[in-house]
Every structure is written in structure tokens, then in C-alpha cells.
Amino acid sequence: MTVRGTLLVARLEFRTRLRTGRWKVLFGVWFAVLALFSLLLRVNLGSEDADEDGIVMFGVLLFFVLLLMMLISPALTAQSINGDRERGLLAPLQTTRLTPLEIASGKLLAAWAVGLAVLSLALPFIAWPVLEGDVSPVRGIVCVLVTALLIGVVCAFSQALSALVVRSVTSALLSYLAVFALMFGTLVLFVLTLPLVTTTEYHESDLKGTYSVKKEHTEYTWWILAPNPFVILADAAPAIPRRLVCDEGSRLLPSPDEQPTEKGCYYASRPEDDPLGPIGEEVRQARVGEQKTGESYKAYEKRLEDAPAVWPYGLAANLLLAAGSLAITARRLRAPAAHLPRGVRVA
Predict the structure, then answer these.
(1) Which of 63, 67, 325, 346 lies 20 to 30 angstroms, CA to CA, from 119?
(2) What CA–CA distance (Å, rounded) separates 262 from 245?
(3) Is the peptide bond before 271 cis (omega within 30 degrees of 0)?
(4) Euclidean distance between CA atoms 311 and 280, whole angstroms
(5) Phi and psi of 345, rounded to 5°?
(6) Stated pTM of the model
(7) What are phi and psi of 209, to 5 degrees?
(8) DSSP 8-state code for residue 224
């Protein structure tokens, strides 16, 4: 595979998409929806703490953008292979000196670039809390980069389904089902496996006699939640600095070790309504599991504080899925083909 061949296919894909002319209308509608949602969200927050409004707005807006991008991304590649085959546009590419991997990579690169262009329209609204100083630039950059990678993953396995399935309508339907399985199926599967990892422990008590305690050993099943896009985004977001909260407001501290000097002030680790923080904490707690028998509460709290991150495993699983999907697409584009499905034409 060469970079020149990949970029050549990507340029051809871009020209094909630009000829339709509908992308301007779609971009305009997308920007209008984000603008309306952001304005309504900020107006409805209206709490006494302006810093907390920005943090909450940042988290809710990111989840909203991620959800919409997960719904838009399959449409970019779910018909890229079988659709071109039905229109007779794929065979001319296969007869050139372009390798199957170059064709697959070029098509994926073009679709991913379109997805990134759609994501870029949301950057002004995501940067709103960052420019106000409520959210750190590092937190904003990390969240946007993670969202961009997840868009590429969805485009990759949607393209693989397009190469595996003959009918474009079927591949589009399967792509959306796969996205919903990734977003909500992992959560449902995790809940359904809880009875399988729940044990009952019996203890002796001087007052109550024998009593039972049920414990859910989620340390065996936490990996089911790891590939979930919302879990990856929430857990990968850098932690919010500790805040000095006073009667008249709050301010971000440059160092967590700084001690309060004003009377009536206290430290808050994060806003209670922060959408990203609680999800990351719950997933890491699921990886640690419940308090063990005979373990002190201080030792358990220490284990929770030192709980390892979950997002590297989830992101790695998604990237492996994307790489495998790209390999499957390239394999299905080999020419000449030994076998063709019924009803599929060569050119």
C-alpha cells in the first residue's frame, strides 16, 4: 500500500460526494441543531455557580455530539462498497494498479474526513465552556480526539459490512444495529451478567445471629463495558481540578494541595451534575469490585482511589475492531474474485 494510491482514492471519493450538492444543506442543518441545543442548554442551566454551568454544559454537549455522530457515521460508509458495485463504479478501480488495501483505505479516509468535518462544526460550542475558563483546554482536546477516533471506528466496521453484504440496504441496517449494540448492548449485557457473578456470604453476629450479604463481583465482567463509546469518552476525560467553594462562588485551584484561607470555604472535587465524572468513577469502581471480606473501609477507599483506568482497554478494542474491519474490506476487494455472490455483477 502506498500513500499516493490511498490519497488518490480519497480524492475520487470526495469529488463523488461533492457532486451531489446536498452536503451544504446537511451541514447547515447540523450546525443549526447544535446551535439551538447549546443555547437552550445554557439557558436552562442557570444555576448560581457559573463554573458548574460550564462544566455541565461541556459534558452534556459532548454526549449529545457523540450520540449524533454515532448515528451519522454509519451512513458515510455503509454503502461505500456494495453501492459502488451496484452502480458499476467499483470495477474500474479494481482494474487499475491500485491495490485492494489502497482502495479500502482511501474510501475509509474520505468518509472519516467527512465525519471529522461534521465534528468540526461542533467545535465552537464545545469550546464555549473552555474559553470561559470553566473547562481546561486539555480536557477539551482529549475529549474531541477520543470522539474523532470513535467516528473512524464506526466508519471502518460499517465499510466492512458494506463489503460483506450484497445489498446496500441490508448493510446499512446491520451497521446501525452494530452501533446500537456497541452503545446500549454492552450495558444490557453487563446488567444481565450480574446474577452470574453475584455470590451470597453468610456471617455470624452476636445480635442478629446469622445474616447473609450479597456481593456483585463486577471485577470479572467490567470489560464488557469497556468498548462502550460513552464509557470511553467519560473515563478518558481528564479529572476536573479541585475547587474552592465559598458563599460568593468558587474558583479553580492551580494545585490540589492549596489550603483554603477564607472562612466558610470548602473543597469540592467536582460538580455533582458533571455528566462525565460519575460514569468514569462508576466504571472504575466496577473494575475494582465491592469491598472484600475482612478488608477495612480505609483500604477499600484506597483501592478505589488507585483504581486503574478502563478507557485504554476500550479504545484499544475499538481500534482493533477498526483494523480488522479494514483488513476484511481489503480482502473482499481482491480481483479477480474466485467466487461472486448471486446477483452481483463484475462491472
Answers:
(1) 325
(2) 10
(3) no
(4) 9
(5) -95, 155
(6) 0.85
(7) 75, -130
(8) G
Beta strand extents in 163-321 (DSSP E only):
198-205, 209-216, 243-246, 249-252, 266-268
Q: H-helix or E-strand containing 60?
A: helix 50-77
Which position has the grid cell 483488513?
327
Distance CA 225, CA 188 (A): 9
> What is the residue extent of each domain of the chain?
3-332
* SS3 per-residue string spanning 300-343: HHHHHHCCCCCHHHHHHHHHHHHHHHHHHHHHHCCCCCCCCCCC
**How much is the pLDDT for 50?**
57
261: its cell numbers: 484561607
Report in angstroms the alpha-carbon separations of 224 from 167, 191, 317: 31, 10, 11
What pLDDT shows up at residue 254? Answer: 46
**Which residues lie below 8 Å from residue 4, measured CB to CB, with a gap of 6+?**
none
Buried/exposed 30-44: b ≥16 CB within 10 Å, e otherwise: beeebeebbeebbee
Amino acid code (one letter) for 223:
W
With the C-alpha atoms ordered 258, 262, 264, 265, is the resulting torsion angle positive or negative? negative
Residue 272: exposed, middle, or buried by beta-carbon count in 10 A (0-12, 13-18, 19+)?
exposed
pLDDT at 65: 93
- Give the cell for residue 152: 473512524
Q: Which residues in the chain show pLDDT less than 50? A: 250, 252-256
Rounded to 5 degrees, what are φ and ψ at 36? -65, -45
DSSP state of 80: T
